[in-house]
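Please check the following for our workbook:

***
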Amino acid sequence: MADDILPLSSAFADATEAEWLAAVDKALKGKGIDSITRTTADGLKVHPLYRESDFPSATDPLGTPGAAPYLRGATAAPDAWLPWDIRQAFTHPDPATTNAEILRDLERGVSSIELTLDPAGENGVQVLGLADLQTVLDGVDATIATIALDPVDEPGFIAAGLLSTWAEGAADLAALKFAFNLDPLGALARTGTLAASLDDTFASLADTLSRLSPFTSASLIRIDARMVHEAGGSDAQELGALIASAVDTLRRLPEADLAALAPRITFSLALDANYGLGVAKLRAARRLWARCLELLDVTPAPMRIQATTSARMLARYDAWTNMLRCTTAAFAGAVGGADVVTVRPFNSSLGTPEELGRRIARNTQIIAMEESQLGRVADPTGGAWFTETFADDLAKAAWEEFQNIEREGGYADSLLSGAFQSRVAATRDARAKDIAKRKVPITGVSEFPLLDEIAAPTADAATPKPAPKAPAAVLTCTPLAPIQLAAPFEALRDAAAAAKKAPAIFLATLGPVAEHSGRADFARNLFAAGGLESKEPPVVPKSVPELVAAFKASGCQIAVLCGSDTRYPDEAEAAAAALKAAGVRHLWLAGKFEAPGIDSNIFMGCDVLHTLTLAHATLGVRG
C-alpha cells in the first residue's frame, strides 16, 4: 500500500466498548445485551460478545497445532491432498448393490468406506458370512481406502473376525487400512443388551485385540458417543459419555499397553447444524482426552476424531433442507479439526439413500475441501475468543458429567442402573418442549413448511434373507434409542396426508391487507406445520357479513382471526360471535387479545404442537 493511501478505517473515530454497548442498548430498546444471551441445553451461556479477557489468545495458552498434548490438533501442516478422511457409510441391505455403490463412490472422491452391518438387513448391509463380505468388498483395495466397520447390534467381535478372515492371504497385513471399531460399551448403550457378562465381554475384547495384532496400521477400538446425541442428549452429556466410555473400556483391559493402544482408538461424535457449538465440541473433546491421558500417566497422543452429521436433525418432510443441515455440520467437522468426517445422505431420513443422496453427501465434503479450501489452514479457529471460551465451558460441564458417571460406578454401571439414561431423557424432554413452542425451529417442518413439496427419492431395498436368531442377552439396560427432532410435527403431517378430506383452516381477516397480512402469514405458516391448508376470502371482507359468507363458502370448520392490535378491541368480539353462529367449531385469534367467542390464541412462543393437535382433534383427523 502506498504511503499516501490510508485504510478505510482511518476515516472513522475510534470507538470504545462502552459506546458500542450503548448503541446495542439503544437498538434493543433498553433491554440490554443480556437479553440476547442464549442458553444451551447444558445451561451454558452463549454471549453476544467475547473479548481477550475471556480467553487470553495472545499468550497462546493451548500451544501450537501438532504439539503435545495436541489440544489444537495432530498436525501443524494438514495433508495438501486429503486434510481429512472423507468417509461414506453404506447401508443398502443387498451385498451386491452395496459393492456397486462402494466402487462408484471410491471412484468419485470418497477416501474410506464404513460398512453398517446388520444380520437382519433392516438397518444396514446384510452380511451373514464370509461369502457376503467378499461380495461387498470385491474390487476394494484396502491398502488405499480404509475399510471401517460399524456393527449394528454387537460389540464388533463377529464383524472383526469376518474382516480379518477376508484379509487372509494379503501380502502385507500391516499395510491394510482397517478400522475394526470394537466397542462393547457403545453396543450396550445403543442396543441395551450384551450377550455376555462384562468380564466375559472384555475378555473377548482382549482376545480379539490380540488376534488383530498383525494389522499394525489398523484402528482397533472406537469409543462412540453418537447414540447419546441421537437419543436427545446434550453436548456435555455426549462428551461426558465419550470420556467415561473410554476410561471404563481401558480400565477393564488391565493387561493392555495403554501407550500403544491410545493412538489406535477412534472417538466418534455427532455434529448438528449449530456449527459454532460443533467446533467447540470437537475442541473440548481434545482437552478432555488430553486430561485423561495425563491422569492415566500415558504419553500424550493425538485424539483421532470421527465426526458424523446428526441423524436426529434430519427431517422427512422437505428433506431437501437436510442438505443445508449436513453442509453446516460438515463445515464444523472440517474447521473443528475432525480427522474423519461422515456426511449422512440428505434422504437417509426417508429410507435407504440412493445415488443422489450419496453423491450430495460426498460432494459436500469435496467442495468444502477442494473449492472452499477448508483444510488448508491448521486449526483455523484457534484463538477465537468465543470458540475457545465456549470449548472451556463445555469441557468443564462434560467433566462434571464424567464425574457423575464415575460416582455411579463407571459408564457400564451407570448404563445398567439407568442413571445416565434418565439424565439424557430429562434433556430430551426439555428440548421437546422448546421444539413444540418453536423456540427451537425446524425449517421445512415447524417453520416454513411446504404443503406441495416434491418428495426426495430413496433406493429400492431388496427383501433381506432370513436372519439368524440373536443370542440371548445376559446383560440388559434401557437403550439410548434414537429420536427425530421433527417427529411430533411430522406425525401430524402424516395424519393430515392420510385424511380422506384435506384438513383446512379459514383465515378470517379483519381490515385491509396492510393490517392483517403479517398475522395471516404467521397463522398460515403455523397451521401448515400440521398439514392444514389455509383458505382465505377471495376478496378482502369489508364487513362481518362478508366475512361470514366467505367462511361458509370455504367449507372449513375451524378459523383463525387475523388483524391488528388496534382493530381487535372494536371488531374481534362481533366477528367471533358471527363466525361461531355460522358454524365455526373452534376459533383462534392471532395475537394475545382475548374476548368472548375466542377459544384459543396463537402467538410467538405459544405451544404450536398443542395447537395443531387440538386442530386435528376438532377436525377428526386421526394419527
